[in-house]
Amino acid sequence: MTDLYEASRLIVAHDAESLLGAVVPPIVQTSLFTFDSYDEMIAAYRGEITRPIYSRGLNPTVRAFEVKLAELEQAEDALAFASGMAAISASVLANVAPGDRIVAVRNVYPDAFRLFGTHLQRMKITVDYVDGTDPQAVERALPGAKLLYLESPTSWVMEALDVGALAAAAQRHGVFSVIDNSWATPVFQNPLTLGVDLVVHSASKYIGGHSDVVAGVIAGSKANVDRVRAEIYPYLGGRIAPMDAWLLLRGLRTLPLRVAAHQDSALEIARRLQQLDCVDRVLHPGLAPLPPGLRGTTGLFSFLFHDGIDLRRFCDALRLFKLGVSWGGHESLVVPGDVVLEQKARPNSAHEFGISARSVRLHVGLEGTEALWADLTAAIAAAR
Ligand SMILES: *Cc1c(COP(=O)(O)O)cnc(C)c1O
User: Fold this and answer.
1) Taking the model in full, what pTM does it have?
2) What is the DSSP secondary structure assignment for residue 235, as one 8-state letter?
3) Which GO terms describe its molecular function (predicted)?
4) pLDDT at residue 348 tops 60
């Protein structure tokens, strides 16, 4: 509870410096900031004073979010983006050059996999995929690599990794490490304290928490964040809008309470699903001892039905669980694995990301455990 309390105090606290004592920081919805004098302008351009010039570089609402996120991740600095993918692509691009090799854990977020397989391939950067649950396999792949790309737990199949052990291996080989921490959130996992160099979040998920914003953020040492900033401000440009940063500030206020509620409901539902004779396997990190450094679990997991359950009828019979991608909001969601395997719109769709046609991914929202369980059991009965 100590961690939860500390985090709550930090993000619920009134921001004393805000305008007119406003309890919520204002949305500074402006593209540029004007100067009072030539001298002030030239001082800003020379870097002698730090003040906003243009919102692609620095905006007060965006900065307020970045400061809170950095504190939550125990980081020196943070930088917010227009999406999680903008955060991922900028973080990777700022740390590799043609001819480099990346080691990535298998079953990463599919669009990260697509970035590696298309854009990075054109830049002559190769990617080796390894089983992240096997630290020795990761260690064997590291010599000569430039970057270790981690996600824990991995997407869909939810392999929870020993992040500290993998980060230590990367350090032994002088390899820069990046982790996608969207699932655990800073409430349940702080990878920088486990030795990872840079943390990435899709803030569209739990950090936003209300399914009304697409955004991303990175956190790390000042030097590591500055290296990404040096590419995002002058030319990559995928920065977040002030309104979206304001929505993330709003989301942060309740993050510890929400993830605790997602944790309780999802774990209970995962345990009950495991008892059903129609369920083959439940892939939820909380059903086994958690790896060191992971302090809790959240609402997203998947499971596999045995043959004999009609996925189409199961999905159509659900009432509270809505068919939809993404996760991390108040609402419960379901994605059938066989539909994902049909995806044609994006490259590399043949790669299965560990997804089985009998599997289902659930996001357990905040509607209440018993109501959600009644919804699931009624839909299973309809699908037999
Ligand atoms: C959604 C997601 C992303 C991408 O984030 P966007 O905000 O949608 O660009 C990255 N990683 C994981 C694990 C995700 O679930």
Assistant:
1) 0.95
2) I
3) carbon-sulfur lyase activity; pyridoxal phosphate binding
4) no
